Structure formats: C-alpha cells, structure tokens
Inverse folding.
C-alpha cells in the first residue's frame, strides 16, 4: 500500500514539473501597413478565443476592419496556448468599435 501511495505522489510531482504555460503565439507582421486604411500596424498581445464566431461579425471584419485584431480566433478545438502577439491597425479598431455600437 505504501508503495502505491509513493508511486502516485511521484506521478503528481512529475505532472507538475512538465506542465508549463505556453509562450504566446507570434502572429505579428512587422513593417506591414493596413491595406484598407494605409497606416502602419502596431503590436499588441491578445487572448485566443476558441469556438465558432458570429457570421455577421466575420463578414464585417473582412470588409470594414480586417486588421482590428482584438481577439485571435483559434477554431473549435481548444488548445493549451491562450494568447498571441498580433499586429493591429488603430483605424480598424475604431471601425470595429463603431460597428459593434451600431449593432446594439
Ligand atoms: Zn485598418
């Protein structure tokens, strides 16, 4: 019995040591300019959102604010990585805010 407890404690400790928070995914595009607004992109770090996004939002994002990058869409299968470094356009972020306000 004592041996079983010792083995379980060892497994728990190994589990703790190997579990590390992953580095943010690097999705930056240095030196790029927004194709819609013509302004240089800035850098930021954002959380990765898993799940299916709203279709209206995706359509508006493609047309009105392609570089807002207020979240990173990670798809349906959740992974360990929770954040990403991104390049964003401040004009796109303003356009996204206006679009979101207009929907309320
Ligand atoms: Zn833009």
């Amino acid at each position: 019995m004592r041996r079983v407890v010792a083995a379980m404690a060892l497994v728990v400790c190994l589990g703790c040591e190997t579990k590390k928070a992953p580095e943010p995914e690097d999705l930056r595009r240095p030196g790029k300019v927004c194709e819609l607004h013509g302004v240089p992109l800035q850098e930021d770090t954002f959380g990765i959102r898993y799940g299916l996004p709203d279709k209206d939002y995706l359509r508006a994002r493609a047309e009105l604010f392609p570089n807002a990058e207020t979240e990173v869409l990670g798809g349906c299968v959740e992974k360990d990585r929770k954040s990403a470094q991104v390049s964003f356009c401040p004009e796109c972020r303003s356009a996204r805010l206006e679009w979101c306000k207009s929907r309320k």
